[in-house]
Amino acid sequence: METRSNHVLVGSVVLILLAVLAICTVWLARIGNATEKEYDIFFKQSVDGLAKGSAVSYSGVPAGQVKSIQLWKNDPQFVRVRVSVTNDTPILRGTTATIQGSFTGPSTVSLDGAVKGAPPITCDENNLAQSCPYGVPVIPTKAGGIGAILNSAPQLLERLSTLTERLTGLLTDRNQASIAGILDNTNRLTDALADRGPEIAATLAQTRVAIQQAGDAAQQVGALAATTNDTLAQDVRPAMQNLNKAITSAQASADTLNAAIGDARPGLQTFSKTTIPEANRLVHDLRVTATALSSVAEKVDQGGAGSLLGSSKLPDYKGK
Q1: Which of 194, 218, 237 is the last residue of a domain?
Q2: Does the pLDDT of residue 11 top 70, yes or no?
């Protein structure tokens, strides 16, 4: 009977101690939660290497840990990561989150980018669906570090595979033979150029001399042009000035002649309309007079002066 009572006493003490331990644990958990803040991060990339309890750092300084990882029900392309950070961590506007992968250990969540004097990231009461879809503020993300490289690794491998296939198709036996022929021709051309090295050097020397002579000729042409300009300035330009004066005088004479013709134009019109018709009638009368005089002269020649006074006598008739 006494032994059973001891067991009951021991059990009661153990239960009391367990209850006290549970109360202390809950109290400590509440104290810890009071000194930490929780945020959601939506990663549109693989979170391989990230696990519950992974470290969260701010600019390399430990600031908290990952609380949970799960796919976002609204869009399976995103992974929702719940993190808790210390209360004194400056989660301000401009802060972004990235996944820092590692080949030797687990991945971590890195926070940085806060702007001095910016307000903290909080829930917007006017837009709770985007700012706090699960009751805590959302930290925006950005791709960077090894995570970005690992995310783009499949595309890089695919492009590398495509490039390898194209190189394989390019380096066929026929193309390799063609490339070998091109290399052989290049070698022969190089050898030929090496053999003709002295001739090429002589040609280059001659070319240099020709260029120098061309430069001298150009200099002489420049001097000739300067001399020509001086000649034009001294001889041709005065002659051109005299010619311009002569042309100006001729223009003035032509203007005077045009004015005189304009003044004589009324008299010319009167002459053509009155004098010329009278002269035509006079010429016609002179022609008629000349015709009559010709007829008289012909009669005088044929019949003498008497033919002008009377009719011509009939010839004497003689009988047989």
Answers
A1: 237
A2: yes
What's the mean pLDDT in 37-49?
A: 88
Of 148, 51, 149, residue with least CA distance to 109? 51
Cα separation, 49 vs 115, whole angstroms: 29
- Rounded Cα distance, 151 and 144, in Å: 10
DSSP E strand boundaries for 72-129: 79-86, 96-100, 108-112
Residues recorded for the chain: 320
Q: Which two three-digit tokens encode residue 242?
A: 């005299």
- Average pLDDT value over all residues in the chain: 77
Tokens 């042009």 belong to residue: 225
Residue 128 lies in a domain: yes
Cα distances (angstroms) measured from residue 72 to each of 31, 79, 125: 30, 6, 22
pLDDT bin (cut points 50, 70, 90) of residue 317 is very low
- 62 shares a domain with 131: yes
Evaluate whether residue 302 is within a structural domain.
Answer: no
The string of pLDDT tens digits covering residues 55-74 is: 999 988 999 999 999 998 88
pTM of the entire predicted model: 0.41
Domain that holds residue 197: 171-237
Q: How many CB atoms lie within 10 A of CB 19?
A: 10
Both structure tokens of 91? 């989660």
